[in-house]
Design a protein that fits this description.
Elements lengths: L1 E4 L4 H4 L9 H10 L4 E5 L9 H13 L3 E5 L5 H14 L3 E4 L10 H18 L2 E5 L6 H11 L4 E5 L11 H8 L3 E6 L1 E6 L6 E6 L8 H8 L1 H4 L2 E4 L9 H21 L2
Length: about 260
């Protein structure tokens, strides 16, 4: 299933624009694009909402026919247990996270212990925990950790763009993780020369126009055959002013949805 994530609305949510988009507004924009899945991922206000606000947000999603997934950073048991409770509120079946959180950088041994302590609760609730591929941890180490824990409710949120910062090839990341992928973050990426020809910048690109070999990912991971959701997000830099930035963000979202639909 194609979905949109908070990172597809990064600038629209930002306080750098005159009227930041609310979570309800993001749900409504998702529905307007004929998309019925939204991943609330690294969205800070979610963690400060009271019970009434959470119930209202969940009801809004249900009323609009939007299925919700959740996302956070870190695997401390307290954090993951809180997001399991949030998953119950939103009727979410997937929580995306990553090994390192704002205040936590566990060793692989510590990470294994933490994951073992919570994954039984996720399995009992029918919720999958998907750990994102990131430059913080080698992809091979992440896969080995998941295999040691050995629970089908623990897997990978595949984002091959991230691992380039670790000098890993996106294609290798896709192939290493394929058997364990539970969620895909969809964005294109490219390098561009810096002014003065003294190096490169690495950032986002319109889907299908950058370096991401998405057909290879589809062939290798087979997300649509396996019921793995594909969540649209972007690496869009500020475009000089709020109007241009928001317009470009929306254009990139539409382009990515069209690209994904064209490959189905």
């Amino acid at each position: 299933m194609i979905g949109l994530g908070t990172y597809a609305f990064l600038w629209q949510h930002s306080d750098q624009v005159p009227e930041p988009l609310s979570l309800r507004g993001a749900f409504e924009a998702t529905r307007a694009l004929d998309v019925d899945l939204f991943q609330i991922c690294d969205y800070a206000p979610l963690e400060t909402m009271d019970d009434a606000e959470l119930q209202d947000a969940a009801a809004t999603a249900r009323d609009l026919g939007i299925t919700v997934e959740l996302g956070t950073k870190g695997i401390e048991p307290g954090r993951l247990e809180r997001f399991l409770r949030l998953a119950e509120v939103f009727e979410a079946r997937l929580v995306r996270s990553m090994l390192y959180g704002p205040d936590s950088r566990p060793s692989l041994a510590e990470a294994e212990e933490q994951l073992r302590s919570v994954i039984g609760g996720y399995a009992a609730s029918g919720v999958t925990l998907a750990l994102e591929t990131y430059e913080q941890v080698a992809t091979a180490d992440l896969v080995a950790l998941i295999e040691r824990v050995g629970d089908d409710h623990l897997g990978v949120c595949l984002d091959p763009a991230n691992v380039v910062a670790r000098v890993e090839r996106p294609r290798d990341c896709v192939e290493l993780t394929a058997a364990h992928v539970k969620n895909v973050h969809v964005k294109d990426f490219a390098f561009a020369r810096q002014p003065g020809w003294v190096g490169f910048t690495y950032g986002g690109a319109v889907m299908g126009e950058g370096l991401h070999d998405y057909p290879h990912l589809l062939e290798t991971v087979r997300p649509r055959e396996r019921g793995v959701n594909e969540i649209v997000e972007h690496w869009l830099s500020w475009q000089g002013d709020p109007e241009t930035t928001i317009r470009t963000e929306r254009d990139w979202t539409r382009a990515t949805i069209e690209y994904l639909r064209s490959t189905s």
